[in-house]
Specification:
The chain is an alpha/beta fold and 289 residues long. The chain has one domain (3-158, 184-213, 254-270): NAD(P)-binding Rossmann-like Domain (Rossmann fold, 3-Layer(aba) Sandwich). It has 9 helices and 12 strands. It has helices at 11-23, 41-51, 72-92, 125-140, 160-168, 187-199, 218-228, 259-265, 272-284; strands spanning 3-6, 28-30, 55-58, 96-102, 145-149, 152-153, 173-177, 181-182, 185-186, 206-209, 216-217, 235-239. The protein has a 6-stranded parallel beta sheet with strand order 2-1-3-4-5-10, with helices on both faces. The protein starts with a strand and ends in a 5-residue tail after the last helix. The protein binds NADP nicotinamide-adenine-dinucleotide phosphate.
Length: 289
């Protein structure tokens, strides 16, 4: 087994590197845009010929949800076109692909958790680019695994947890939307699930949903972040999404049904609040692995 990880400096890529280097040292090649730009077909082909991986874990993505509304070409180039290129190279070289997508493929009109077969209807450029990426990957590589996740955070990069901790320590009040309901996902937990899939005796292709157990609003999440971060002099005030306009429209409800990944790969998923406490402890104590 030899693994090629793309986007290895991102949140998920970094957490995956932490796990793989500890549990399976020496069998993975880690790349980010400085070493391998996944939009560069020739560079992709060259690294495949050089490294001869059995698996590609594609953590590379364009993830700036609001900016994507004004940078749609770049967003589609990375999230759709590059995924098609990667799929073509993988299919030609008989490589298994593990790829990631998002709860933003849904429109949020449901009242019950979305299953993998629920109808998609992305509201944003980012969501559309990711849905197209899923479809093009599975059409070229029917043997691929796609894991949709939601509200990803970690000690690395830019994410909601770090933004709330930063703003909470410099403001007396934070207004956070209370009508967006979903499940936070600790990137370290998702990386652990990725490890389980890679190590599984059976590789079962298709789309899967993964988020931490439990459900909350963005407001609940923000409040839990400040509580866990022991930030006591900042009040979190609930507001409506309608009162907090953003460039990209987000689904109001994006809870994912995770029963398929749990059943297929024997994965146990931690509760979002327990994982948040773990992540904040690591972040505050500068524990990077
Ligand atoms: N973040 C979330 O809340 C969230 C929610 C649901 C699903 N997801 C999905 O989960 C996956 C992992 O997300 P993440 O939060 O870990 O993303 P991230 O932190 O934004 O990391 C993405 C990585 O991809 C790299 N990258 C961008 N363009 C590239 C290119 N052309 N070639 C090679 N690398 C490139 C970036 O490198 P540079 O910094 O150098 O550009 C970055 O290191 C993605 O598929 C994302 O769509 C994320």
């Amino acid at each position: 087994m030899k693994i090629l990880v793309t986007g290895s400096h991102g949140q998920l890529g970094t957490e995956l590197q932490n796990i793989l280097e500890k549990r399976l040292p020496g069998i993975t090649v880690y790349t980010d845009s400085d070493i391998l730009d996944i939009t560069d077909a020739k560079a992709l082909e060259a690294i495949i010929q050089k490294e001869n991986p059995t698996h590609i874990v594609n953590c590379a993505a364009y993830t700036a949800v609001d900016k994507a509304e004004t940078e749609s070409n770049l967003c589609y180039k990375i999230n759709t076109e590059a995924v098609a290129t990667l799929a073509t190279v993988a299919a030609r070289n008989n490589i298994k692909v593990l790829h990631f997508s998002t709860d933003y493929v849904f429109d949020g009109h449901s009242y019950t958790p979305y299953s993998e077969s629920s109808k998609t209807n992305p509201l944003s450029t980012y969501g559309t680019s990711k849905r197209k990426g899923e479809m093009v990957l599975l059409s070229i590589c029917p043997d691929a695994v796609v894991v949709r996740t939601s509200w990803l955070y970690s000690p690395y990069g830019n994410n909601f947890m770090k933004t709330m901790l930063r703003l909470g320590s410099t403001n007396k009040e934070l207004k956070v939307v209370v009508d967006q309901i979903g499940s936070p996902t600790y990137a370290a937990d998702l990386a652990d699930a990725v490890f389980s899939i890679l190590m599984s005796r059976q590789w079962v292709p298709g789309i899967y949903h993964y988020a931490n157990e439990g459900v909350c609003s963005r407001y609940d999440f923000a409040k839990a972040i400040l509580d866990a971060g022991k930030i006591t002099d900042c009040r979190v005030t609930p507001i409506a999404t309608a009162d907090f306009p953003t460039d990209a429209e987000r689904p109001l409800f994006s809870v994912l049904d995770k029963s398929l990944i749990k059943r297929t790969y024997g994965i146990t998923i931690p509760n979002w609040h327990d994982s948040l406490l773990h992540c904040i402890n690591r972040y505050y104590n500068n524990i990077t692995d």
